[in-house]
Amino acid sequence: MSFVSPGTAAEYDVRARQGLEATFDTPATGVGRAPGRVNLIGEHTDYNRGLVLPVALPHATYAAAARREGTRFRIASAQQSEVWTGALGDAAPGRVTGWAAYAAGVVWALSEAGFQTPPMDVYIDTSVPLGAGLSSSAAIECAVAMAVLGVTDVDLDDDVRRLVVEATIRAETEVAGAPTGGMDQTVSVFAAEGQAVLIDFDDDSHTAIPLPADDHVLLVTDSRVTHTLVDGGYAARRADCEEAAAALGLPSLRAATVADVEQLPDARIRARARHIVTELDRVTATVAALEHQDWARLGELFAASHASMRDDFEISTPELDLSVATAVEAGAVGARMTGGGFGGSSVAIVPTDRVDGVARAIDVAYAAAGHPSPAHLLATPSGGANYLG
Ligand code: ADP
Ligand code: MG
Fold it and tell me: Which of 52, 54, 172, 280 would bridge with 42, disulfide CB 3.0–4.6 Å?
């Protein structure tokens, strides 16, 4: 059994700076940092104008940057062998493919939002596992944004942070082509230590929700089944939700009731809509249960959420079903798959003294089922994106 280390900001600051020097032979002016996230509850609700409750991970992406002469950017990553080189226009939608879209797309979107984006060298490193449903994509986007704004001396106040969320969403949806809903960027930018972030996509507000500390921890298990959000399954679910809302004559499923969705004639569309409408109630109920530290209720809500994603939304996998069931059997208060689905991770709320036992039980269950070993992370709720100078 092993836990993926988040490293420290000081360690990654050095690593990112050294990477920039070694790759581009230039000293860093500064380093942007942005965390990955785990969503506690509220899955696929963001693009339905709904509620989500993510937590920022201690695992984060770091981007070292320095201005350079000429017109071109150069962007490299410790996680990728290809270096991207191009001018601002080369980072526009449709012009950049692969991983670099997530980084270069941010420079393009910041420029579109009116920020200064002089040519820079950028070097990225991360402790967030890629493609594990823990939002390495928002982490790289927001880290690059922090670096570009930091190097150009922009004050990272709340107004700027809101623009960063918008720009990084544009990079992900328009440049990288992943039709995600904005939860990941919002929590990566606005998270606060020790808190979850309740985001309401009806009015784009976000509220800090204190998490009980000490006696319980959040155990994230990466199933090592890599999901790809640009692959079609995610977009298909989003289209189903839009079809359901249109059939009900509503602007979004946020406005629908359980009674409404049960009238939908198409069985698949009805099941998709049922997940969204019931999940929205579960987010509100989870906030209340956290406030009262009602662990039994949290367990029920997580179980119902997982079943809804497995049966109605059909985004779980056998590996995720196994880590969720095993976590609960081994003493977790509650567990569910988290993130967009089709692979990725599960999250469990576990009494602190049981976390090693729960992680070990999941390892044993995976081995017995013939699945590759999973990776575990402790999701100590961390602070939002910043510029390390
Ligand atoms: P998730 O956000 O759950 O990790 P996504 O599919 O949304 O999964 O995003 C993962 C993709 O983001 C990677 O395949 C890669 O293209 C890009 N990416 C994320 N982090 C990095 C990084 N540190 N370096 C290079 N590319 C990255
Ligand atoms: Mg992502």
Answer: 52
pLDDT digits (tens, 9 = 90+) for 273-311: 999 999 999 999 999 999 999 999 999 999 999 999 999
Q: Whose CA is nearest to atom 27 of ligand 1?
A: 99
**Which listed residue (46, 121, 125, 184) is catalytic?**
184
- 17 C-alpha to ligand 1 centroid (Å): 20
Pick out the chain residues at pLDDT < 70.
1, 227-231
Nearest CA to ligand 1 atom 20: 136
Six token digits for residue 296: 């039994």
pLDDT tens-digit readout, 116-148: 999 999 999 999 999 898 999 999 999 999 999
Q: Whose CA is nearest to atom 9 of ligand 1?
A: 137
Q: Are residue 28 and residue 172 in the same domain, yes or no?
A: yes
Q: Is 233 in the pocket of ligand 1 (CB under 6 A)?
A: no
Containing structural domain, residue 47: 9-210
Q: Residue 285 C-alpha to ligand 1 middle, in angstroms? A: 32
- pLDDT reported for residue 229: 53
Question: Which pTM was predicted?
Answer: 0.95
Nearest C-alpha neighbor of 241 from the set 213, 271, 221: 271
3-state helix, strand, coil in the chain (%, to 5): 45, 20, 35
Q: Based on the fold, state whether residues 201 and 249 are members of the same structural domain.
A: no
Instruction: Judge if 34 and 172 occupy the same domain.
Output: yes
Same domain, 319 and 200: no
DSSP annotation string for 255-300? G--HHHHHT-SSHHHHHHHHHHHHHHHHHHHHHHHHHTT-HHHHHH
Domain count within the chain: 2
Residue 237 and residue 139 share a domain = no
Tell me, in angstroms, the distance from the centre of ligand 2 to residue 175's CA: 13
